[in-house]
C-alpha cells in the first residue's frame, strides 16, 4: 500500500510541473524546454536554503522568483530577439546547468537533519500520510490561485494570446508581454515541483531535471485526452484533469514496476501507455461503406 501511496505523493509533487507545461504548451502553444533547468533550479535553491537552515516561508517565494526569472529570460529571447521558442528554451536550459552546478557547489546535496515543509506541520502521525495531506493542501492552494488567475481579465487575455495572437494584438494587448509572463508563470510552477520533490526525496541532484519535461508533457497529454473525451470547456475542470494526469502518469509507472517489468523497459512501457491514451479517441471502429 505504501508503494502506491508513494506514487500518489510523487504525482502530487509533479502536479505543479504539469500545470506549468499546460500553460506553456496548451495555452501559449510554446514548446518550452526551459522546464528541465528550472525544475532543477527549484530543487537547488531549496537545498541551499534548507541546508543553511532558512525557514520554509522564505524558500517558497525565492523558488518561485528563480523559476519565473528563468522562464522570463526564455520569453525575452523568444520575443525580443525573435529566436525560435524551442531554441530559446534549449539555450536557457543549457545555461541553467552551469548556474545550478555553481549554486550546488557539487553534484548533489543531501538534506540531512533539515526542516522541510513535510516536517514543519504534523497533520497525521504516519510520516507518509502527513506528507500526503500537506501536499494535497499545497496543490489545492496552487490550483485555486492558477484557476482564479485564468478567469481574470488578464488570464483571459493570456488564453486569447494562445488562441489568436493577431486578434488579441488588434485589441491593443501586448502579446510579447503576455508570452513572457506566461513562460515566467509556467517555470515558476515547474520550480515549485523541484521544491516539493527535493524535500520528498531528501536531496537535490544536478541531473534531477534531465527528461523531466516528459513527465509534465505525458501528464498534460493524458489530461488533454480526457478533456476531449468528456468535451470539457471549464477552466477549473481542465486544471483538475491536469492534476489527475500527473497522478495517473505516476500510477502507471508504479503498476509497471509492481508487476515485475524490468526497470530498463520502464520508459518503453510509459511511451506505449501515452501513445494508447492519445490514439484511442482517434481510432474508428466503424466499417467503411
Tell me, what is the CATH class?
Mainly Alpha
Helical/strand content category: mainly alpha
Describe the main β-sheet briefly: 2 strands, antiparallel
The residue fraction in helices comes out at: over 70%
What topology, given as strand order, has the largest sheet? 1-2
Mean pLDDT: 89
Give the overall shape.
globular
First-to-last CA distance: 50 Å
Number of helices: 13
How much of the sequence is in beta strands? Answer: under 5%
Protein described:
The chain is mainly α. The protein has helices at residues 2-13, 15-27, 35-51, 56-80, 85-104, 117-120, 127-151, 153-163, 165-170, 175-201, 212-230, 235-258, 266-279; strands at residues 108-110, 203-205. It has a single domain, classed as ABC transporter involved in vitamin B12 uptake, BtuC (Orthogonal Bundle). Helices cover 75% and strands 2% of the residues. A two-stranded antiparallel sheet has the order 1-2. Helix 2 (15-27) runs antiparallel to helix 10 (175-201), helix 2 crosses helix 11 and helix 3 packs across helix 10. The radius of gyration is 19 Å and the shape is globular. The protein starts with a helix and ends in a 10-residue tail after the last helix. Mean pLDDT is 89; it is low at 284-289.
Amino acid at each position: 500500500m505504501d508503494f502506491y501511496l508513494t506514487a500518489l505523493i510523487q504525482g502530487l509533487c509533479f502536479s505543479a510541473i504539469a500545470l506549468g507545461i499546460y500553460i506553456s504548451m496548451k495555452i501559449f502553444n510554446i514548446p518550452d524546454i526551459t522546464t528541465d533547468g528550472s525544475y532543477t533550479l527549484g530543487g537547488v535553491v531549496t537545498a541551499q536554503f534548507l541546508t543553511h537552515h532558512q525557514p520554509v516561508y522564505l524558500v517558497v517565494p525565492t523558488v518561485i522568483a528563480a523559476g519565473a526569472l528563468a522562464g522570463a529570460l526564455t520569453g525575452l529571447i523568444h520575443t525580443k530577439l525573435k529566436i525560435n521558442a524551442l531554441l530559446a528554451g534549449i539555450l536557457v536550459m543549457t545555461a541553467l546547468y552551469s548556474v545550478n552546478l555553481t549554486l550546488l557547489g557539487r553534484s548533489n546535496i543531501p538534506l540531512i537533519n533539515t526542516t522541510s515543509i513535510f516536517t514543519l506541520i504534523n497533520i497525521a502521525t504516519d510520516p507518509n500520510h502527513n506528507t500526503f495531506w500537506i501536499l494535497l493542501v499545497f496543490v489545492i492552494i496552487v490550483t485555486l490561485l492558477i484557476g482564479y488567475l485564468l478567469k481574470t481579465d488578464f488570464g483571459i487575455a493570456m488564453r486569447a494570446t494562445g488562441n489568436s495572437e493577431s486578434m488579441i494584438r488588434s485589441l491593443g494587448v501586448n502579446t510579447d508581454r503576455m508570452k513572457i509572463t506566461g513562460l515566467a508563470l509556467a517555470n515558476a510552477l515547474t520550480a515549485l515541483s523541484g521544491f516539493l520533490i527535493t524535500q520528498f526525496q531528501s536531496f537535490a541532484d544536478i541531473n534531477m531535471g534531465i527528461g523531466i519535461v516528459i513527465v509534465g508533457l505525458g501528464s498534460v497529454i493524458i489530461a488533454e485526452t480526457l478533456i476531449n473525451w468528456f468535451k470539457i470547456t471549464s477552466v477549473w475542470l481542465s486544471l483538475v484533469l491536469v492534476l489527475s494526469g500527473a497522478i495517473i502518469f505516476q500510477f502507471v509507472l508504479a503498476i509497471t514496476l509492481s508487476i515485475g517489468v524490468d526497470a530498463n523497459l520502464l520508459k518503453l512501457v510509459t511511451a506505449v501507455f501515452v501513445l494508447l491514451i492519445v490514439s484511442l479517441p482517434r481510432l474508428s471502429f466503424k466499417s467503411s461503406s
